[in-house]
């Protein structure tokens, strides 16, 4: 028997093949294309070929459509589990972004499912059914396959407390150590589906990122014997490899690929194992899926074209490295919105990725949603001058010099693109000297024209991810947060335009870099 473990991960609500940049955009990814690949892989379903489809999380958040459903058409949320049923999903795993809109909404998203959600390392004080199953065991022709579901334990560091009230996220390696030996007694094949990634080089085992617990896939395979296949996600990497003899997949993001692990099971044991990624770029959009999403998709496209305001000047981002190096009117505008919403006079924001277009002269909701791509809320945090300097040193490490040219530090590019970790600040005057070593690059830090002192108390507006230390900013902590806003940033931007129908783009001068 060939057991085919077919996996999706980090689809992030890209259901149709579009990036939503234009109403007529056609993109080489999306769940509709994924559905066609899954159909192809499951059509020879018999006792000799057993396809098992697993969704590995970050499914219901991340696109303009997911925001539109969550905030304006909540009753449509069961669509996500209905589509998963259509794709013959046999088990689901929670991603960290599943919690962004709260537990009641998550329960609604999964309300039509025909499959179990697996949450082995999520402990729920309220014993909700949604988090009750750590694993599932499937059986065919006398062969049993156990699937253990795990979610990155770092959720509690990022998510707003009210969205995960009563939930506790245990260490994934400790959880696997507990469950895998038990599952080996109950099943012939043990699969781990982990919404988390690989923290070390698959071949050498050398760390490729900070070992903070966010991604622990390599450690799991190094410390937990008995795992026959590992499905990963979260990092948005494209991986089909083997680690310590165990096949591992990670299919990227937005439905770019489908993960496939093929296990040949003969005479009571696995005799062959192989990992692949199946691109969906040339697969047609599945007509049945497109028909299901068409009504809400059309309504969302109309909403995206809603006019909001006007820009005098230029807020389009053409060179993203240049914008991060010298600041940009778009970033300055986002910080203005943050400060207006919270009443502080220091704020920080990130140019999240190199697809951020900025804002056209006639601003619509589409431009806002395509530029501010996360459902961030704001937090006001009081920190010391030393904390602020430490955060700026973290930002300064984003750049390196190579042959006299400024480049992005590879640590922010691999194993995962993390442009969103670099922030630009308003309300302070600061300067980086890139010729100096990491940790000594902030050569100016002034507030209201005076040098910031280490023990000086400063109030800063941050997104809730950064305010909790996300992105390896340990100087920012939840116990330093004074207050949080409950409104998403995209709504705050729209509200700002309602009060200021015409906004003038201005190039900020508070931040400079020498090299």
UniProtKB/TrEMBL annotation:
Gene3D superfamilies reported in the protein's UniProt record: 3.60.21.10, 5'-Nucleotidase, C-terminal domain
Domain (5'-Nucleotidase C-terminal): residue spans on this chain: 324-477
The Calcineurin-like phosphoesterase domain, residue ranges: 5-237
One matching Pfam family: 5_nucleotid_C
UniProt entry keywords in alphabetical sequence: Hydrolase, Nucleotide-binding, Signal
Family membership noted in the UniProt record: Belongs to the 5'-nucleotidase family.
Protein name: Bifunctional metallophosphatase/5'-nucleotidase
Organism classification: Bacteria, Bacillati, Bacillota, Bacilli, Lactobacillales
């Amino acid at each position: 028997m060939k057991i085919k473990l077919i996996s999706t991960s980090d689809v992030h609500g890209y259901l149709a093949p579009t990036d939503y940049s234009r109403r007529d955009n056609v993109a080489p990814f999306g769940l509709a294309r994924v559905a066609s690949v899954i159909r192809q892989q499951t059509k020879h379903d018999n006792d000799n070929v057993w396809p098992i489809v697993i969704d590995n999380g970050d499914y219901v958040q991340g696109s303009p459509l997911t925001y539109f459903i969550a905030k304006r058409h909540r009753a449509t949320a069961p669509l996500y589990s209905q589509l998963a049923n259509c794709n013959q999903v046999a088990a689901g795993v929670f991603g960290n972004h599943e919690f962004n809109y709260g537990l009641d909404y998550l329960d609604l998203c999964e309300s039509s499912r025909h499959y179990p959600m697996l949450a082995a390392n999520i402990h729920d004080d309220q014993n909700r059914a949604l988090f009750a199953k750590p694993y599932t065991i499937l059986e065919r022709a006398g062969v049993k396959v156990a699937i253990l579901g795990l979610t990155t334990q770092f959720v509690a560091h990022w998510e707003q407390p009210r969205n995960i009230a009563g939930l506790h996220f245990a260490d994934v390696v400790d959880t696997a150590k507990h469950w895998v030996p038990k599952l080996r007694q109950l099943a012939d094949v043990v699969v781990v589906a982990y919404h988390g990634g690989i923290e070390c080089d698959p071949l050498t085992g050398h760390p490729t990122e900070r070992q903070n617990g966010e991604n622990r896939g390599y450690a799991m395979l190094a410390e937990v014997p008995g795992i026959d296949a590992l499905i990963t996600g979260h990092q948005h990497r494209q991986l089909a490899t083997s680690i310590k003899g165990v096949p591992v997949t990670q299919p990227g993001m937005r439905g770019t690929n489908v993960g496939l692990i093929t296990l040949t099971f003969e005479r009571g044991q696995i005799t062959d194992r192989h990992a692949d990624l199946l691109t969906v770029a040339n697969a047609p959009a599945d007509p049945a899926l497109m028909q299901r999403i068409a009504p809400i998709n059309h309504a969302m496209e109309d909403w995206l074209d809603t006019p909001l305001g006007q820009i005098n000047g230029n807020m389009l981002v053409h060179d993203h490295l240049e914008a991060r190096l010298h600041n940009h009117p778009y970033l300055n505008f986002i910080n203005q919105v943050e400060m207006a919403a919270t009443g502080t006079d220091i704020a920080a924001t990130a140019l999240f990725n190199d697809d951020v277009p900025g804002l056209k002269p006639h601003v619509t909701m589409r431009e806002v949603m395509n530029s501010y791509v996360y459902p961030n809320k704001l937090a006001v945090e009081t920190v010391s001058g030393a904390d602020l300097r430490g955060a700026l040193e973290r930002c300064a490490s984003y750049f390196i010099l190579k042959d006299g040219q400024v480049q992005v530090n590879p640590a922010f590019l691999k194993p995962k693109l993390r442009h969103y970790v670099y922030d630009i600040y308003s309300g302070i005057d600061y300067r980086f000297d890139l010729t100096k070593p990491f940790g000594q690059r902030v050569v100016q830090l002034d507030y209201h024209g005076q040098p910031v002192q280490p023990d000086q108390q400063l109030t800063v507006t941050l997104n809730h991810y950064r305010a909790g230390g996300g992105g390896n900013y340990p100087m920012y902590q939840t116990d330093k947060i004074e207050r949080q806003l409950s409104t998403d940033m995209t709504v705050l931007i729209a509200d700002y335009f309602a009060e200021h129908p015409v906004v003038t783009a201005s190039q900020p001068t508070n931040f400079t870099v020498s090299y």
